[in-house]
Amino acid sequence: MSISVEIKDIVQEYPKPDGKGVTRVCDKISLAFDEPGINMLLGPSGCGKSTILRMMGGVRPIGVPTPTSGTVLIDGKPCDGAHDDAAMVFQRYSNRPDLTVRENVAFPFRMKLWKKKVPKAESEKRITDILAAVGLADKHDLLPAQLSGGQNQRVALARALVLRPRILLMDEPFSALDAQIRQEMQALLVKLYEMQPCLIVFVTHDVTEALTLGDRVITLSTQPARVADDFRITEPRPRSAIWARSTEAVKMEERILNILHAANPGRGELTVTV
Ligand SMILES: Nc1ncnc2c1ncn2[C@@H]1O[C@H](COP(=O)(O)OP(=O)(O)OP(=O)(O)O)[C@@H](O)[C@H]1O
Q1: How far is the CA of 105 from the centre of ligand 1 (A)?
Q2: Which of the chain's ends, N or C, has fewer CB atoms near its CB within 10 Å?
Q3: ipTM of the complex
Q4: What is the mean pLDDT of residues 96-112?
């Protein structure tokens, strides 16, 4: 699987709520991703992480030019609107309450584009396979209200991955889950990534989550955001508790926290899970 995503000199300004002028949220952000991998994106609240993720997915807010300047290139071509290379997973799993687990996962294939692209027999097989991979084969005919938060997030993950996206954009997907379920979901994500490698960009406020999952950790500064730090982690996954307490990991943790604290002294939503 080959993939290249380049974010070049992105500036994003949004109109101020009182209508007087604009707020610059992102200031000349440049990032390049040229291989499958799990890329963690951290930064103080409001620095524009979701904005960047949406831009990569070609999702545009109504009435605001996005980006204000700069470009996002996918395989060298400008991404200036919705495209079918990326799938998104959000903190709120946004499953349709009136559809069963299987129908929710099948939902993308109802869209004309995917109906045309993937023959019915193939889409049915993919749905069955991904439901098994996320551990929901026996729950396929339940409704979202009959599932736990973790199970609902499994449905959302399955719905994103059933399309076999080259880019998976994840916006704090596990932050509403309790610690144990979150760890299970992290392990599941790694398993799914190994089965089907793609370019994952994963927004989190949790430094431990970044060090547990990331091949690469990118930290943004406060608004207007710039890339403050960008490093790789070569330790193979799954990463042990011994590694998490190693000098290498502790230094990485301090490196991230120093930037976040400098950006946001005394407040923010930082978490370190022990
Ligand atoms: N469509 C919009 N119109 C106006 N302002 C917006 C719009 N979208 C985002 N913003 C503002 O831009 C800033 C960055 O928002 P964004 O959600 O990208 O940040 P974030 O880093 O993901 O935040 P958090 O960590 O709190 O989720 C915020 O101040 C937000 O209010």
Answers
A1: 29
A2: C
A3: 0.97
A4: 95
Quote the pTM value.
0.94
- Of 14, 221, 226, the one to substitute when testing ligand 1's pocket (max ligand atoms within 8 A of C-beta) is 14
Structure tokens at 133: 């991979």
Return the structure tokens found at 118: 């993937």
As a whole number of angstroms, the distance between CA 38 and CA 259 comes to 21
Question: Which pLDDT belongs to residue 262?
Answer: 83
- pLDDT given for residue 82 in this prediction: 82
- Contact assessment for residue 75 and residue 4, using Cβ atoms and an 8 Å cutoff: yes
Question: Residue 50 C-alpha to ligand 1 middle, in angstroms?
Answer: 7
Q: What single letter denotes the amino acid at residue 131?
A: L
- What was the pLDDT predicted at 274? 44
Domains and CATH numbers, the chain: 1-85+182-274 (3.40.50.300), 89-164 (no CATH)
Q: What is the spatial distance between Cα 114 and Cα 218, in angstroms, rounded to a whole number?
A: 33
Ligand 1 pocket member 64 (CB < 6 A): yes
Q: Which helix (H) or strand (E) holds 162?
A: none
CA 33 – ligand 1 centroid, Å: 23
